[in-house]
Write a structure and sequence with these properties.
This protein is mainly beta and 144 residues long. It has a domain of 88 residues: Sandwich (Immunoglobulin-like). The protein has no helices and twelve strands. The chain has a four-stranded mixed beta sheet with strand order 4-12-11-8, with no helix packed on it. It is elongated.
């Protein structure tokens, strides 16, 4: 049988056969920074309005396979006046453009990726009919 790590932490693995028992400790750790060769951010380009937010996901490439590393990267915004980060969530503060940055590791092993986030002013006069749709208004007049 094979033990598979599902998340970071420590588990005790116990094997029993008859009246004999053996135990082993399985420790799952974060991947080493040098083993992640690239980070991909989703979404890579997005537009939101002031006051809206968007959740980002980071994928680390290890041996040509992608793994969700959202919880272990450091998230930041290049323009904190336009958007601020609350963990993996960007919150639009004012109109403008910023880069959302996911970084992992330190020093020579530090890698990062950027995604463009445009924050626009909310539309004060929204189009009441979505583009490509028609509005049919019927009026019925009743005389007494």
């Amino acid at each position: 049988n094979v033990a598979v790590g599902n998340g970071i932490g420590t588990s005790i693995i116990t094997a029993k056969f008859g009246d004999q028992e053996a135990k082993a400790t399985l420790r799952v750790t974060e991947p080493e920074p040098k083993s992640i060769t690239k980070i991909r951010i989703h979404p890579s380009n997005k537009t939101i309005s002031v006051g809206e937010n968007i959740t980002y996901t980071a994928y680390g490439v290890i041996n040509d396979e992608e793994y969700d590393i959202t919880s272990i990267v450091n998230w930041s915004s290049s323009n904190k006046d336009v958007a601020r980060m609350d963990g993996k969530v960007a919150i639009g503060l004012s109109a403008g453009t910023t880069e959302i940055i996911a970084s992992y590791g330190e020093g020579d092993n530090k890698i990062s990726e950027k995604a463009v986030l445009v924050v626009s002013q909310p539309n004060e006069n929204p189009d009441p009919v979505p583009s490509g749709d028609r509005l049919i208004w019927e009026r019925e007049v009743i005389d007494n």
